[in-house]
Amino acid sequence: MSGFDKGPILVTGASGGIGAATVRQLVTAGADVIASGRNEKVLADLAGDTGCRTLPFELSSEESIREALEGLDLWGVVNCGGFGGEIATPMETDIDVFDKVISINARGALLVTKYASQSMIRLGKGGAIVNVSSQASLVALKGHISYGSSKAALDNITRVSAMELGQYGIRVNGVNPTVVMTPMSAWYWGREDIEGPFLKQMPLGRWATEDEIAAPIVFLLSDGASMISGVSLPIDGGFTAC
Fold it and tell me: pTM above the 0.70 mark?
């Protein structure tokens, strides 16, 4: 079912929890993985643990992305790099923060898709791209004007890219996770006034783990998903279904 012998898979955001879990699961499945992220020490440790290759570049810079990816043979991509920004209402938002969130989460993923797809088309073997979006793109969440907007844009990038790249045998899908409770997210989602009411609305009533997000990403890259393209798959314990 895996089919991970077709070529290298690039994972951005690999120095974060979901990205690193995706790298580990892909390597276990037999994939040749290239890990990218901001924290080069974490990437080096990940490479030591898994045998993956590393390729740091800056998602906010087209020049950095182009220099890293032009001429690089790729079969797959996981756009997992992202920036959370701020918790703010539309009335309070810092537009500079908004611009940075959009620049990394939407523009950065589009630029990676732009240059990676050129490689896939050149090689003529098809390919698969998975964009890591969020439940915040599917429903309105308080305080998420910047992050939710960036991920809604990413969902549209997924759909349009699936339409445009299908003729080359390249599938493009997205996943829309709920919160993974890490120290970085606990400052907000771990608050008693936020966590309790939110989980009460979720049918499964708990936060996701990094591996629970990574596993569907790996599936969407695999031959088992060979007829799936253009979808945005919620991994949210049923939250957006309610």
Answer: yes
Active site residues: 147
Give every CB contact of residue 4 below 8 A, 6+ residues apart in sequence: 26, 29, 30, 31, 32, 221, 222
CA gap 219, 229 in Å, rounded? 12
- For position 83, which CATH number holds? 3.40.50.720
In a domain, 222, yes or no: yes
* Count of domains for the chain: 1
Q: Which domain holds residue 66?
A: 9-232
From CA 99, how far away is CA 6, in angstroms rounded?
37
What is the mean pLDDT of each successive set of 10 residues along the chain, which is 242 residues long? 88 96 98 96 97 97 97 97 96 98 98 98 97 98 97 98 98 98 86 96 97 98 98 98 94
